[in-house]
Amino acid sequence: MAPLLTISVLLTVASLVSSVPMTITAVDETDKESYKLPNLFKTVSYDLSLSVSSEVFTGESAQYDGTVSITFQFLNRTNFVSLHAHKDYINITSLKFNNVTLDAEDYSIDNDTNILSVDLTDFQENIVTARDYQLVVDFVARLSTEDMYGFYRSSYVDKNNKTKYLATTQFEPVHARKAYPCFDEPSFKATFNFVITYPKDLTVLFNTNPTDSTTNDTLGLTTTKFEVTPQLSTYLIAFIVSEFTCSNGTAVDGVAFRVCSRDEVADTRKVAVQVGSTVIEKLNAFTAFNYNASMKKMDQVAIPDFSAGAMENWGLVTYREAALLYDEAESSNRYKQRITTVIAHEFTHQWFGDLVTCKWWSEIFLNEGFATYFEYHIAKEVEPTWELEKQFLIEQVHSVLEDDAFENSQALQSDAYTPTEISNKFGSVSYNKGGSILRMVANVLGADTFQKGLQKYLNDSAYSSAVPEDLWTALQAVLETQLPAPTLEDVMKNWIKESGFPLITVKSNGRNLTLTQERFLYSDSNSSTKWYVPISYTTSTDEDKFTSTTPKAWLTPSTNETLIELPENSTWIILNNQQTGYFRVNYDDALWTSIRSALQGKDFSGIVDLNRAQIVDDLFNLARADKLEYSRVFTTSAFLANDTSYYPWYAAFNGYDFLLKRVGQNRLGKAISSSLLGLMQKLYESVPFSNVNATNQIYTHKQVLALTWACRLGNEDCIGEVSKRYGEYKTSKTRPDKNLRTVVYCNALRYSNDSQDWDFLWNAYLNATDLATEQVTILSALGCTKDTALLKAYLNKTITDNSGIRPQDALSAYASVYSGNAEGVAVAYEFLEENHEKIAEKYQSLNALGRLITGIAEKFTTAEEIDKLKKFVATEGLPEEFVASANEAIASAEHNQAWVKTFEKQLNEFYGLDDNGAGSIGGAPFLLTVVVALVVSYLWM
């Protein structure tokens, strides 16, 4: 599925988050194995036939009929067969084994595991291995109308103001069993023959091309058959019945290419059509395994209601509208990048995920890690000026280094049995960390070796399933690099099987440096995990500064330290060129001081932007973990006063965002905000509202980032520009510049005292039904108002039928409220407490309660807030999964509170405030930072 969004994608695209809903349900450890099918069967083929009546598309019924014939083999002689069928959706009317109809008493479905168990005792004597057997199931089923999983119904309003219904699918990870009985696990691959009957005025799409259609005019039904699929997993099957139309793209090696959607938005398909064909060509070239060897067509389809961001069904990729459809005049550059990278992500899956599939969900990073890596690596071939490989660092690596620094973080390969545990594997570790680890491996081995190894991996495991050892074996076979261990598998073992990552500490004794490692955590730990860590570095005397990412040294699990000797006359050293290694670095005082001096030099002494971003990100997080003082953070990062580069500032804003969320808008918060406004003045002046440059992607990203923060921090010029542009929009009905709308919409409402400004934007949202990117942008801005009455009314719309907010977007609306302003946190919490039953009922499958309380509690820092949350969680009758999420949220809030207690005094001292946050802004350390910044600015003139 599409990648999880990172901090880089502002709330304007937060609703594109592609993750499976995160729920937590307690299951006895001894029972978890029962959720997995026994390794006793091998699937060969499915013949699936469905019949969907016209009543489904009028909203009168959700019922459909089906028959599935499954050919399979026994790997061992048994007296039963087990597969999946969800009892809430499927009613079995007949079941045959090898043409013998079984009694209803011979089969049953377990309510918890969804496992359909068929007793074959009467056939046991005749069962042998390596022979085909048939299981034929007739069933009556229903489309899901309460969520967006399985075979479900979506709707939209057409240009004639009529509601139109469509039936579509979302099967990953465990939802195919809701649509038809099947062996619903990734390792059970098979071919599929698909036949479907549906109203004749509609069209149907499937993974493969249709081969035959017949229409019964009397019944008003058409029956269509499709080409047999290659061997694939059940979660990759997809079918859509709708009135959609399609735009044809350029065929690639005989592969037909189309983009489909509701006809009203047909003119926004162009970018997807152009990008898709190019991405397929680039992936064909990289993998040396042409797409046309498996599939003869590629359809991309925009679905009005879609739970994920996108889904990689083989040959039939599905998306949210905002993740596929782009209006050149109205959609921002950020959306164009998002659409390009999501397409690259999903198309990568056609190889890494579809052709070669993870054997079990515990190693889903083999699917999602590769897709995350290549969504940047391949998309850069489509748009080389976007600096996507550089953006990978701040969007993927930095974000997951934060997530992975907690004691309870997951390992890349970890057990997952229940649907809840499986869903929870679809998080930042599998996506971001998976991609980051692959990026590290690519840089250690070299690009050519990495590519050859992946080509071998795909060829060796094609149409099958894989485990991490298969990947390392393929890479090892083409390896030309000397490793510090016998095999690549040895090197990678702890990176894959252990959670977390290392902190490398560098201590100096003259020119002699000592490197040690420990697990990096925000809290104290007794973890003894160590890794094989590739060390690249640059010194002040290196001519090819930061260009080489090949390791010059290694830290290993079996050695306590590694020694490096600085070249003669070197004045500084920085580890981890371009931060290709997945770790953080801390230095002793002398080395940090030398780095600070280098950063104050002209052109930052040649320290490149990615390593400046690394330094800033490491500094803030080392201080957060109490590994160094915040005074070190602020004095070393004072170089930012003269740095107008996107990447270091992106890292800096993340660091300041953490601080401001914890201290709020008390005296300390205002001191931090004021100093940050001063520090970013040159950045702000470099990207004025009057100078938009849509052809320069990084400039545009930087402009939006800088203006967003300037307005948030209260820059009067910024607020005035926003107010002027919003006033012009209200008067002329001409929208602001497409790239500045996130800034204008949010801050116009944040600083407005007129409720009509909010009403105007809400109406603009309702009228933008044919521009999904605009709707998502507005939804995220509506929560920026400080008017608590408006915020309550906004949240109420999320639980009101036909309000205009789709279920897929509700959580984005909530997030905009508790993230927009301090006032929104209390409003969101009170709304949750008062309406938790309605929220749970309306958004049960999305685990809305759990997600909401997690997001809200992240903003809690006081004992009063935490006590209120504890009392609510103690309420009887709350859903079990919510209570589990809430308890984790309480722990998070208590962590925030402890952080404030630990660091508030240190920060007050730096900013010249007393322990209560009183006093003037301008203590000695703070003034030192200002003086340093001014001196550096003078030297650069």
Describe the protein in words.
- The protein is α+β, with helices and mostly antiparallel strands and 941 residues long.
- Among the domains are: 1-36 and 262-489, Orthogonal Bundle (Neutral Protease, domain 2), CATH 1.10.390.10; 502-607, Immunoglobulin-like (Sandwich).
- α14 packs antiparallel against α15 and α21 runs parallel beside α23.
- The model is unreliable at 3-27 and 920-941 (pLDDT under 50).
Radius of gyration: 28 Å
Largest sheet: 8 strands, mixed
Distance between the termini: 49 Å
CATH architecture tag of the domain at 1-36 and 262-489? Orthogonal Bundle
CATH class of the domain at 1-36 and 262-489: Mainly Alpha
Strand content: 15-25%
Shape: globular
Structural class: alpha+beta
- The count of DSSP E runs of length 2 or more, i.e. the number of strands, is 30
Strand order of the largest sheet: 5-4-8-2-1-11-14-13
CATH topology of the domain at 1-36 and 262-489: Neutral Protease, domain 2
Q: Let me know the CATH homologous superfamily of the domain at 1-36 and 262-489.
A: Neutral Protease Domain 2
Helical run tally: 28
Kindly state the mean pLDDT as a whole number?
93
Low-confidence stretches: 3-27, 920-941
Helix content: 25-40%
What features would you highlight for this structure?
globular, 30 strands, Neutral Protease, domain 2, 28 helices, disordered C terminus, single chain, Immunoglobulin-like, 941 residues, eight-stranded mixed beta sheet, metal-binding, alpha+beta, lipoprotein
